[in-house]
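Support case: user asked for a sample of complex input and structure output to validate their parser. Sending the pair below.
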Amino acid sequence: DSGVTQTPKHLITATGQRVTLRCSPRSGDLSVYWYQQSLDQGLQFLIQYYNGEERAKGNILERFSAQQFPDLHSELNLSSLELGDSALYFCASSVTQGNSPLHFGNGTRLTVT
Amino acid sequence: DQQVKQNSPSLSVQEGRISILNCDYTNSMFDYFLWYKKYPAEGPTFLISISSIKDKNEDGRFTVFLNKSAKHLSLHIVPSQPGDSAVYFCAASYNNNDMRFGAGTRLTVKP
């Protein structure tokens, strides 16, 4: 158990809809990362937050947004969903006092129909 | 923008032999490199890491080698066991920001 909790585990929705994915980082971790994995592909970096502030941005679509709240949990909002957004979305957390590994949750599988 | 590349999508080895997984990167600013292992229906789990000031780090059966001049790292698993069968991702970051992952290599260890 990595200590990172992602909810829900599965999500099925229709094109054009909006969903929110939630992540609770490991206790004490200030940094949260979001990744997308489509169809056995690699992990595509979306966005990183540190202690409530955006730290780095990857290939995140404008239809997607995220935030990290004062209690350090994070939400990833996906809107105007398209079939191609179907993927596994992973959240990870780390203590960014120097280099340290990321600890991943088990992901949310999003299916857009 | 593929800053971290794993050019072998799959690798098959016999139990007891050495598994060598390779990874190349393009960003010379990266100073921290990691290997993750992933089983189906689970998130990636951290395996081993190396900072750019070292060229080798060992942990039991797992050794990571870093060649900064070639921008190349590799993971050696000796001896390989059937339970090592999984997808392996290499990753790299600068000051723990913006950690980038390769596409993964599926390792199959045959009994």
